[in-house]
Structures are given as structure tokens and as C-alpha cells.
Amino acid sequence: MFTGLSAFPLTPVSDRGIDEEAFAGLVTRLATARVDSITALGSTGSYPYLDRAERARAARLAVEHAGSTPVIVGIGALRTRDVLELAEDAQEAGASGVLLAPVSYQALTADEVFGLYEDVTASLSVPLVVYDNPGTTHFTFTDELYARIAELPHVASIKIPGVQAAAAEQRLAALRALLPPSVTIGVSGDPLAATGLNAGSQAWYSVIAGTLPEPALAITRAAQAGDAATAAAESERLQPLWDLFSRLGSLRVVSAIAEVLGLVGHPNLPLPLRGLPDGERAAVADVVQRLDLR
Amino acid sequence: MFTGLSAFPLTPVSDRGIDEEAFAGLVTRLATARVDSITALGSTGSYPYLDRAERARAARLAVEHAGSTPVIVGIGALRTRDVLELAEDAQEAGASGVLLAPVSYQALTADEVFGLYEDVTASLSVPLVVYDNPGTTHFTFTDELYARIAELPHVASIKIPGVQAAAAEQRLAALRALLPPSVTIGVSGDPLAATGLNAGSQAWYSVIAGTLPEPALAITRAAQAGDAATAAAESERLQPLWDLFSRLGSLRVVSAIAEVLGLVGHPNLPLPLRGLPDGERAAVADVVQRLDLR
Do you know which InterPro entries this protein is assigned to (chains A, B) (predicted)? Predict the structure, then answer.
């Protein structure tokens, strides 16, 4: 389950709460496209903005509409007590795995982050993905901490930030040597995903796949078949999209893409987050059309 | 109310929730010392780690035990919807003002932060302190954004990060010129508080005052009386404390000081936050004794 393409759908929200119909539609779309797993309530799914009841409901909807595709559910929160409750809710909803980032307000020490994973894995029944997302958590994992956490029970995969092309193979080999064979390494950072997969990453935890599974699958399946050139070329074809990600942030861009494709309404992000201004939405619509994204 | 010394108490927690007796004791201690205001549920009060019911309860306890000292209550949360609910709860609890930081997971744009303050002040009945705490929110205010927000109704004060000695007077004068006269400027960053007060800041939003009101009052009252030398000397006397803040973080240090003084139990921070390791707690206890802090 923790190999291949994991797609992170938006959790569209309106004034009235989660737009359940749109969310179910996104999940169904991903299952139909045959991604390898669906990660509901990742950063793209706005997990820390939702309350416990909303998150339990989204987890249930995801499992219900994913068919036979395994669903991983994000359980991150600032406080360990809340993470433990969210882990229970995710498991009750039928999640096949959970995803946990060290969400921070006060900067956390390495021992505190280890303690969090220790406390959570101690009472878990499903596998866990360690979610290293320094852009949102502002916590920096060391390799030593990865290795310590990877020895904990139920730890199945580590979602690492993107690795730069020049050093990707060495980086992944070094990390591989540190971790138990049972723990997969998955890359995030969509613009560098082809690089990571071609360099030996076993999984891609993908923002774009949550809204546009087809182009993400094209990259993943090529890399998995050993056709590095096709994976790289397909990623290169999407460069205008990666440029938008880098300029406007991946969340706001996929939110606008999903709007343009009629998959979600407007607005669909939890306030204070707002969608892109009109001019930028037009730029996104233009890229969607030029690249024939759908 | 938004001038002088505002003291930020810890909200001590244990496995069983808020340690209400210890919290009430801290608030009473501050009122007895005659600080100018008490800010409950600031960063030192671990506001984002507590749930809505805990925060409403802490707000009530603070007002109840503060006597005639005005109480400001922190209402920050990731989602605007939650901030609005917390604002209602704080006002119902009898808060004289509220404190709001742009808590972030996804990085916020200036327009999103302005929108947050616009939405919250629109339905507020008490004054609001804008809480600029880049160390925890990872959001950087521009002066232009300060000025835009300061024009909103109910905005009474801006809590700015510490200003360095060399440029303090120019910095505060420049900011003063940008803001309506009714909006006070308060400094945070305890080690630079004497510098800020001596350079014209009207308030000190203080971590240390929440646990040790006396030395903070000594600095504040000297600066207010125009005795810059005494304010600076008193702050200099506390240098071993500021060194601990810089090495270990102010929250964990005041948590340990409060333990050493018997004001709170151990542990008293919400997991995954942990108190200092034993060796560091001994270093804190040593400074408490050497400086005769109480």
C-alpha cells in the first residue's frame, strides 16, 4: 500500500461545512483512475483546519467512495491527546493507514517529536506514514530521527520532501541504508517527483494526483517500468504547472484547477485561506487548457 | 489597558486537563503584584493546544481571579470560524480585550491576514490586540499591513517582536507615525523589553511577568518614570535568565521556573511539549537562586 502513487484530494469546504458531494466525487475520481492509494486529510485536504467531527466524517466518506483502493487518513494535530483521538476515529472509519506530521506551534525538539510518534504508535492497529512537511510544520527531521522513528511499531513509510536532481540517487541510497527494509520511502514535492521516482523512491505522495490523477499516473507508471526518460518527459511537459505551484503555492493552484474543471465550488478553502485572485485564476485556467489537463 | 505591563501566565495542564487550582493561583499572584493587565491564553498560556471548552474555562477562571485587573484573552486559531467562536466565548467570560495572532499551517498572504482581522473585528464588542509573533506563526507583517489593520474597528494595540537596541527609537517612531494615535505599540521578546520601553514603546507584553511579575514591574515602572538607566540595569541583572530563554526557549524556561517556585506541578505543558530535561531544569533552578527570583 505504501508504494506507487498516493493521491491527496482536497477537502472542499463552504460556509456550511464540508462539501460532501464534491469530496465524494473527488475520491471516486481517484479510485476510478486506479491510483495506488488515496490519502484523505493531508495538507491538501486541509486537515488541521477541520474539527474532529468533520475529520471523522471525511474519513468515512473517503473509505466509502474509494472502493477497493486503500485509504490513508491524516491524523495530525498540535496536541498528542487530539492525535490519539483522531487515530481512533480514522481506524473506526476503516482507514488502511494513517499519516502523521509533527504539527507545531511552539518549535518541537527531536525528543518531543520522537515522543509523539512513540505515544501514537503504541496504541495503533494500522500502519503509519511519517509525514515530513517542513513547509507547514517548520520542523526539520534529521536522518538520525528518521531512523529512530522507523524502528517504532507500525511505521510503514516516510514521506520526505523533494530531493534535488543532482543528488537524488545518493540521497535516497543513504536514507535506504538507514531504514528497515519494511519502511518505504516516498517523495513529495510534485515538481521533483519524477526525479525522486527515477532515483529509487518507492512512492510518490502527490498533491496534483488528488485532482489530476492521470498525468501523475503517467509519470509513476513510466518510472515503475524503468522508463526514466518518459517519466522525466511527462514531468517536463507539466513545467507550466510546476511554475504556478512555485509562484502561488500548490494548495491554491489545485483548488483553482478543481474549480476550473467543475469538480468543486467556489470558494472551497477554509477561511482565512482564500482562493486565488481572479487574475491568477485566469492564469491557472490558461495552463489547464494549454496542457489539456482533466 | 493597553499600556504598561501585560503579564502572560502559563496555563498549566496535566493528564487530567487544566490544573485549575495552579492557574487560578498564577492569576491571583499577578493581580496581587498589580501588573497593568493579564493576558490569559497567550503563547505562554498554550492557547492553540487547548480545546474550545478548556479555553472558555480558562478565560472564566482568569476573569474570576484577576479582581480589578483587566484580562485580555487569546482567541487565535487556524480557522476563522473557530476564532469567531473563541471571541464570543472570551467576551462571555468577561474579557476586557482579546489577542489575535495569524496562526498558520499553510502560509498566509497579507490579504488573507487582513481578511481574518476584518472578519473578526466586524463582530467584536471589546478591543483587540494584534499579535505579531513570527516565531510561532511564521507570518511576517509588513508595516503597510500593520497600518491597514490598525484602521479596523476595535483594534487597540499591536504587539510587535523585540526591537534591537541600535535602531529602537527610529523603529518605534516610524511605526508610531504609521498608526492612529489610539493604537498603542507594545513590545514582546523579554530580553529586549527594557530597550523597547526606553525607546518609547507604551506596553510590554511579557512572558516572564506571567511567572515573575516583580522583576518585570521593576523594569516597567522605571522606564515609565523616565529612569532609563534603572530599567536597563534591572534588565541586565536578569541576563542569565535571558541566556536561558535564548538557549532553551522562553516557554520551557518559565515552565521550569514555575515548577521550581512551587507554583505549578510537573509536567505542566501539553504533550507533545515536554518540560526541560533534568540537567537543564537544574540550570534553571540555579539561576532562580542566584538572581533571587520569586
Answer: Aldolase_TIM, DapA-like
Burial class (CB in 10 A: 0-12, 13-18, 19+), B269: buried
Phi and psi torsions of A192, nearest 5°: -105, 10
Helix/strand/coil for A157: strand
Q: Residue A163 class from Cβ within 10 Å (0-12 exposed, 13-18 middle, 19+ buried)?
A: buried
Domains and CATH numbers, chain B: 4-227 (3.20.20.70)
User: Which residues of chain A lie closer than 8 angstroms to B113, CB-CB?
Assistant: 272
B226: distance to nearest CA of chain A, Å?
35
**With helix as H, strand as E and coil as C, how does A240-292 read?**
HHHHHHHHHCHHHHHHHHHHHCCCCCCCCCCCCCCCCCHHHHHHHHHHHHHCC
Chain B residue whose CA is closest to A277:
B111
Whether the Cβ atoms of residue A209 and residue A30 lie closer than 8 Å to each other: yes
* Mean per-residue pLDDT, B57-78: 98
Supply the DSSP string of A39-98, one letter for each residue.
EETSGGGTGGGS-HHHHHHHHHHHHHHSTTS-EEEE---SSHHHHHHHHHHHHHHT-SEE
Best mutation target, A79, A83, A105, to test chain B (most B CBs within 10 A): A105
Amino acid at B110: A
Distance CA A26, CA B157 (A): 44
Buried b vs exposed e over A180-205: b needs ≥16 C-beta within 10 Å?
eeebbbbbbbbbbbbbbbbbbbbbbb
Residue B166 contacts by C-beta under 8 Å, 6 or more apart in sequence? none
pLDDT at A237 over 90: yes
The model's pLDDT over A100-143, given as tens digits with 9 standing for 90+, comes to 999 999 999 999 999 999 999 999 999 999 999 999 999 999 99
